[in-house]
């Protein structure tokens, strides 16, 4: 929302289903409504990456990403080269899947999700090789719908495919920090006067708001399930009236926010959170740039006692980098610090 302009965004999309046969392999990789969003965007400050409320500031953190989506937040940065040639895209798909999409199945450097869904449905799960191919298709669908989706939610950039080549190393990447990078970037863009639609990981944003600001949330179906985002799976079936709440309704609730109304991760039963997620808690307050290929953002607030800040780092043009048009570049070198 900017002035009288209503920002549009897609509703929460359910994740693509997967065959239970691949569940153990999927675990190995570590991936196992617009009115409220507009009200939150009005309170987002792109300079410091926080929401400003009457009683203080609040931000989405790496801890939130880990708890809400169950993604690894410690590991290698999600980065590498991007190449705009169809031949490179074709060769990568042939190497990993034995088949490649036609140009009609692509949109520039983006592969349509329908191609991955069709391929996934055709794979026979009779050995580890085909099961790994199936899981890679499923992960690319997660990228295109839940984590790194664009405004169309119909395609995914093939830049992620090289990171999936070695199946055993997929879990070594910090997918959680990459997801948070895209959320920060999407929120910052959404505050611009010329932005008419928001993309990015809206599942993360909505679930974060429902956890921290429970007076905004529909009734969760299963309050003890993990990842936390699954607590509101099919929420609209039991909270039919919730979808009709207006922007004015949410703005009024946020304007009237009092101390003690907001709570967070600390109120979640720690026994619900798996040990492998909690083991990475030491990384949740690091003061480093968040990187995902062309996207680079910096977290500024941690809810801790703040001393005199160091000299701020100017990211320059890097903070607004986009992948529109041909981009042949190695982002691992471009964003090295």
UniProtKB/TrEMBL annotation:
<dbReference type="InterPro" id="IPR019557">
    <property type="entry name" value="AminoTfrase-like_pln_mobile"/>
</dbReference>
<dbReference type="InterPro" id="IPR044824">
    <property type="entry name" value="MAIN-like"/>
</dbReference>
<protein>
    <recommendedName>
        <fullName>Aminotransferase-like plant mobile domain-containing protein</fullName>
    </recommendedName>
</protein>
<dbReference type="Pfam" id="PF10536">
    <property type="entry name" value="PMD"/>
</dbReference>
<feature type="region of interest" description="Disordered">
    <location>
        <begin position="311"/>
        <end position="337"/>
    </location>
</feature>
<feature type="compositionally biased region" description="Polar residues">
    <location>
        <begin position="326"/>
        <end position="337"/>
    </location>
</feature>
<dbReference type="GO" id="GO:0010073">
    <property type="term" value="P:meristem maintenance"/>
</dbReference>
<feature type="domain" description="Aminotransferase-like plant mobile">
    <location>
        <begin position="35"/>
        <end position="312"/>
    </location>
</feature>
């Amino acid at each position: 929302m900017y002035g009288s302009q209503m920002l549009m965004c897609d509703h929460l999309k359910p994740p693509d289903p997967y065959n239970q046969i691949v569940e153990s392999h999927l675990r190995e990789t570590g991936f196992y409504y617009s009115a409220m969003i507009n009200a939150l965007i009005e309170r987002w400050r792109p300079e410091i990456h926080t929401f400003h409320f009457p009683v203080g500031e609040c931000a989405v953190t790496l801890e939130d990403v880990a708890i809400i989506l169950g993604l690894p937040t410690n590991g290698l940065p999600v980065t590498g080269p991007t190449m705009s040639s169809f031949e490179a895209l074709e060769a990568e798909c042939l190497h990993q899947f034995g088949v490649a999409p036609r140009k009609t199945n692509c949109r520039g450097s983006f592969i349509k999700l329908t191609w991955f869904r069709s391929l996934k449905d055709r794979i026979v799960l009779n050995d580890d090789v085909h099961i790994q191919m199936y899981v890679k298709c499923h992960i690319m669908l997660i990228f295109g719908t839940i984590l790194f989706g664009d405004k169309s939610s119909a395609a995914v950039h093939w830049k992620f495919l090289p990171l999936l080549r070695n199946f055993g190393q997929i879990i070594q990447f910090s997918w959680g920090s990459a997801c948070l990078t895209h959320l920060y970037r999407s929120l910052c863009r959404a505050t611009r006067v010329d932005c008419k639609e928001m993309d990015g990981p809206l599942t993360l944003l909505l679930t974060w708001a429902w956890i921290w600001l429970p007076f905004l949330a529909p009734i969760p179906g299963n309050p003890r399930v993990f990842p936390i985002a699954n607590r509101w799976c099919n929420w609209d079936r039991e909270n039919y009236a919730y979808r009709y709440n207006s922007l004015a309704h949410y703005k009024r609730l946020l304007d009237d926010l009092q101390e003690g109304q907001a709570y967070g991760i600390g109120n979640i039963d720690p026994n619900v959170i798996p040990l492998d997620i909690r083991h990475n808690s030491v990384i949740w307050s690091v003061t480093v740039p968040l990187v995902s290929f062309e996207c680079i953002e910096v977290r500024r607030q941690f809810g801790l006692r703040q001393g005199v800040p160091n000299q701020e780092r100017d990211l320059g043009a890097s903070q607004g980098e986009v992948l529109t048009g041909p981009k042949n570049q190695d982002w691992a070198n471009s964003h090295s610090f």
